[in-house]
Each structure stands twice: as structure tokens, then as C-alpha cells.
Amino acid sequence: MRTLHLNFEEAIEICKAISNKHRMAILRLLSERPHNVNELAERLDLPFSTTAVNVKKLEDVNLIITELLPGRGTQKINTKNYDQIVIDIGPQETKKPEHAVVYDMPIGEYSDCEVEPSCGLVGETDYIGIQDDPRSFYETGRSEAQLLFFKAGHVEYRFPNRLPYGDKATQIEFSAELCSEAPLYKLDWPSDITVWVNGHEIATWTSPGDFGGERGFLTPDWWMTNHTQYGLLKNWRITKEGCFLDGMKVNSDCTIDTLKIAEKPFISFKIGIKSDAVNMGGLNLFGNKFGNYEQGIVMKLKVEEKN
Questions:
Q1: CB-CB contact of 70 with 77 (8 Å)
Q2: What would the pLDDT profile of 196-241 be if each residue is shown by its tens digit?
Q3: From the CB of residue 268, how many other CB atoms can be counted at a distance below 10 Å?
């Protein structure tokens, strides 16, 4: 049985997401077996659009996951992530005051890159530069990119370090929408995508495929549906206990102290495909006007105040 343990602060967003009878009903149905949105809509006697919105709310807080089944077209199957939720309401350890620094980095604002074809940048209304030409990644208009893709290599982002002098970083997390990169799109196309923070390897996630055939919520109408349409929202978190991918601990060797955030003028986030990856399936990275999630690369830095 998978249990999600929450403290008071973590429980707020989860409680907001499940304070709706339709979402609670969806979780109950998914406890029986995985369903697609059509099945959920039929069993709940709700319009498809209403059901899809409620499913996305549950996805956003990681209570359910949506996957595409190879060999079954573009059918998306929803599965619950946890069997129960436990909220700790016991006495809390007295802590120094904390606050968070949040920054949403546009995907075209990378500081360094090394990419191999197939590769390209896509803006809100057209391609940026020449498709499959790595030189396009150095075009002055790259900051307007809403989708970038490459078969091999990496992009690196340097976030402004807004940690107040004298304060201590207690946790840092990043989130981004991404998937594999295949010609046009291919649902069964695994890719080992790795993230590094301040030069330290955090985690490798194997994307199941390159998702297309069904338009993303934000994907512009001019972009054909036989191309990549959307990705999955992934979350990487580093604390004093180690590194977590979508809430699951994946690395104990690197901690928030290992990153030495207070000693650096910027915070580096690098994402790409390692040269020795088993699944060299490329990478698609989505901006706030492409795909399913209205964001670029979001960094959230939790800070313990000195005074």
C-alpha cells in the first residue's frame, strides 16, 4: 500500500485538489482499476471536458498519473498514485521562519547548450531559425521559444541566486514539462533524461514516449497534430535527506548542502541525454504556451531566515 505522508504546509494544496466531490469520485474509481477520461466521464455522468479538467487538477498535485499505452493509439490511461493520504497534525518541531523564492524560467533563456539533430526551436507562431540545424540554438530570437527539442546533448539554465545573505537554503525543487523526441511522434519511444543541479547529477527519468496525435491544451492551432503535442510534468526536489523525483527518493548522495547554493552567484539547472544513456530517445521541453502546463522551468527555493 502506497501512503502519502503530509505535514500541514504540504497538505494545503492536496486538500484544495480533493475538496470536490467529482475528484473524490475519480480517485475512488481509480482505486478499482485504471480508467481513461471517456470511461470516467461515462461512469460519473459528466461531460468529457469537465472530467478532463478534474483529472488534470489531480495530476497537478501528483495524486494520479496519466500514461499512454503502447499499441493502443493515443489512449491515455489514468492511474492513482497512492492508496491513502496521511496528514500529520501532531506537535510540530519549532523552526526558524521559512519563505520561498520562486522563479519561472522561459525555456529559451538557456545559458549554454550542446545539441545534435534532430533538433529545433519553435515559437508561438513559427519555427525559430532552421530546423535540424544546431546553429539555430544561438539565434537572438531563441528567448521566445515555446518548444525546444534535440536528439542528443543538453541545455543549461542559470537561475538568479536570490538567497538572502546569511540565510540558509533548506530545499530546492524544479519542475518542467517534457517527453522523448522521435520523428513526428511515437508513443513507445523511451528516453533516459538526466538532470544536474550545480554540476551534481540528481536523477535520470525514462520518458515512455513522444506524445502526439491529440492536441495539447496550450499547443497552438498552427502546429500539426502529427508532431509532438505535450509532455509530462516532472518534479525534482533536493533536501537535506537527498534527491527526489516526483516525490520518490532516488539519490541519497547529493543533498541541499552538497549544492553549496550560498557560495555561487547563480543556480545551474542542466537537462539532457547522457552520452552513455541506454535509451537515447532525445528530449522535448515545453514552454508556457505549448503543451499541457502553463509554465517554463519553475524553480522553488525554500529559505530558512537568519532572523
A1: no
A2: 999 999 999 999 999 999 999 999 999 999 999 999 999 999 999 9
A3: 18
Asked if 242 contacts 253 with a C-beta cutoff of 8 angstroms, the reply is: yes
H or E stretch at 11: helix 8-18
DSSP 83: S
Q: Which CATH class is domain 3-87?
A: mainly alpha
> Which are the contacts of 103, defined by CB distance < 8 A and separation ≥ 6?
159, 160, 162, 298, 299
In this prediction, residues 180-200 reach a mean pLDDT of 97
SS (HEC) of 18-75 = HCCHHHHHHHHHHHHCCECHHHHHHHHCCCHHHHHHHHHHHHHCCCEEEEECCCCCCC
CA–CA gap between residue 35 and residue 29 (Å, rounded): 8
> Hey, where are the domains in the chain?
3-87, 98-304
The gap between the terminal CA atoms of the chain, to the nearest Å, is 42
Residue 305 in contact with residue 96, Cβ under 8 Å? yes
Choose the CATH number for 98-304 among 3.50.50.60, 3.20.20.370, 2.60.20.10, 2.60.120.260: 2.60.120.260
Helix (H, G, I), strand (E, B) or coil at 141: helix
- Please give the full DSSP string across 150-189, using - where no structure is assigned: EEEEEEEEEEE--PPTT-EEEEEEEEEEEE---SS-BSS-
Cβ atoms 162, 103 nearer than 8 A: yes
Q: pTM to 2 decimals?
A: 0.73
Closest Cα to residue 102, out of 305, 306, 307, 296?
Answer: 296
How far apart CA 248 and CA 238 sit, in angstroms, is 11
Short-list 65, 6, 16, CA closest to 234: 65
